[in-house]
Amino acid sequence: MKQDKPLAFFDLEATGTSTDNDRIVDIAVIKRLPDGTETAFVSLVNPGMPIPREAIEIHHITDAMVVKAPSFKEIAPSLLDFLHDCDLAGFGVARYDIPMIQNEFKRAGFEFKLEGRSVVDALTIFHRMERRNLSAAYKFYCGKDHSGAHRAE
Predict the structure, then answer these.
(1) Mean pLDDT in consecutive groups of 10 residues from the start of the chain, 153 residues
(2) Looking at the DSSP assignment, which residues form a beta bridge with residue 14?
(3) Which of 23, 103, 107, 126 stands 20 to 30 A from 150 (CA)?
């Protein structure tokens, strides 16, 4: 695959799983240029709200760790510049990370457009390569092929 644009691989950690209501607490972006050069943008983010215990148990980022970190609004201009003209990639980015970062940019008064960007989601690729349907589950758990998969019986 020929790369003609920068490709930004990114991951977020947040206060929860709601892309509308939760906030980013950690962001890491590795940008790979077409010539193979890589640069990074990494920052803890003060979410402006307490981090729930359930989230801390997953990512181990505490309120004390982000208390002096910049807010998303403070990093938004440099992050937007870093992501300029980049295609986007990551694991699960289409359903979680992209909507989350778009909402954070919107709350900060910036627009993060997807037009003109390709999105490479490793989770989507994984699901296409490793089927996740009734026949695959039956084969995995029972060791047998499932014939007649589209009959109720």
Answers:
(1) 89 96 98 96 98 97 98 98 97 95 97 94 83 78 76 58
(2) 24
(3) 126
